[in-house]
């Protein structure tokens, strides 16, 4: 993993108000420390499996905080600050009962450069992207990121209204995979989709509309660069986004079922367009 399997000497926390664990305070209030502005708070990662993925990601680890006996399971470098406390102190700091043993805080990094994300490491290689419009549910976003990693999607593009993919709930539901998935914001929406078209992507807007083509009619072998557009749970993609896409596609379903949840629909589409 690139990290020595040594455990830094932990700092024992006995006072829930200790300023050294301020990154973790009152997380139930909104996935970021109370009073921290949106988008500048640290990345909070919950659970040892997700922290292991954090260690493989580009995000610099600030500290780890957890119950004594659990942080020893992590492959932490000697320069990582480790705080331990009993479960009651941990719960009082974070504002809920921690069931996954440990949390970590990491520095944020800016979103990926849009041009570099579209090109990819090899401009001639097949590429799959997910493009999200108005997706304001952190758990759906995390679930989509997890499916993206599992099913060969190499990046996320977000419209300006999307939720923060680095909020704690997004990271938790993704099992930390969102930390290894590059993302960028497409500020000019939906006109900015032309950036994808110029880079050779077929944009496929997912919709349950009856006049859309069946998803299985979109041949991924004929389109080595494909971007799947997904809208928020409930309203789905706006008419403007659908019009800006090259193809409108629907997932064939049994009669009487009009749609899937957005996270499930994303997984189906990612698998179909591999």
Descriptive report:
The chain is of the alpha/beta class and 274 residues long. It has 2 domains: 11-106, Ribosomal protein L30/S12 (60s Ribosomal Protein L30, Chain: A, 2-Layer Sandwich); 114-272, SPOUT methyltransferase, trefoil knot domain (Alpha/beta knot, 3-Layer(aba) Sandwich), CATH 3.40.1280. 24% of the residues lie in helices and 20% in strands. The chain has helices at 48-56, 87-94, 114-119, 138-150, 168-173, 193-198, 239-244, 262-272, and strands spanning 11-12, 43-46, 61-67, 81-85, 102-106, 127-133, 156-158, 183-185, 202-206, 213-214, 225-231, 247-250. The strands form 2 sheets. Strands 8-7-6-11-9-12-10 form a 7-stranded parallel beta sheet. Strands 1-4-3-5-2 form a 5-stranded mixed beta sheet. Helix 4 (138-150) links the parallel strand 6 (127-133) and strand 7 (156-158). The chain is elongated, with a radius of gyration of 20 Å. GO terms for molecular function: RNA binding; RNA methyltransferase activity. This is tRNA G18 (Ribose-2'-O)-methylase SpoU. InterPro entries: Alpha/beta_knot_MTases, Ribosomal_eL30-like_sf, rRNA_Methyltransferase, SpoU_MeTrfase, tRNA_m1G_MTases_N. Residues 130-270 form the tRNA/rRNA methyltransferase SpoU type domain.
């Amino acid at each position: 993993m690139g990290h020595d399997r040594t455990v830094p000497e932990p700092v024992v926390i006995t006072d829930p108000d200790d300023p050294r664990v301020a990154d973790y305070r009152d997380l139930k209030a909104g996935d970021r420390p109370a009073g921290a502005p949106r988008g500048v708070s640290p990345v909070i990662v919950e659970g040892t499996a997700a922290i292991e993925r954090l260690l493989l990601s580009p995000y610099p680890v600030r500290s780890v905080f957890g119950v004594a006996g659990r942080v020893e399971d992590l492959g932490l470098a000697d320069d990582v600050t480790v705080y331990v406390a009993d479960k009651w102190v941990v719960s009082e700091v974070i504002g809920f009962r921690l069931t996954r043993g440990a949390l970590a805080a990491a520095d944020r990094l800016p979103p990926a450069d849009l041009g570099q994300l579209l090109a990819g490491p090899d401009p001639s290689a097949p590429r799959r992207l997910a493009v999200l419009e108005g997706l304001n549910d952190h758990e759906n976003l995390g679930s989509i990121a997890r499916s993206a990693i599992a099913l060969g999607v190499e990046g996320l593009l977000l419209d300006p209204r999307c939720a923060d993919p680095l909020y704690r709930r997004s990271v938790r539901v993704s099992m930390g995979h969102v930390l290894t998935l590059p993302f960028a914001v497409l500020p000019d929406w939906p006109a900015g989709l032309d950036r994808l078209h110029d880079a050779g992507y077929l944009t496929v807007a997912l919709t349950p509309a009856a006049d859309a083509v069946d998803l299985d009619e979109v041949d991924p072998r004929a389109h080595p660069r494909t971007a799947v557009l997904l809208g928020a749970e409930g309203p789905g993609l706006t008419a403007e986004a659908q019009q800006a896409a090259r193809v409108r596609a629907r997932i064939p379903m049994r009669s009487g079922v009009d749609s899937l949840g957005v996270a499930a629909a994303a997984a189906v589409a990612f698998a179909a367009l591999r």
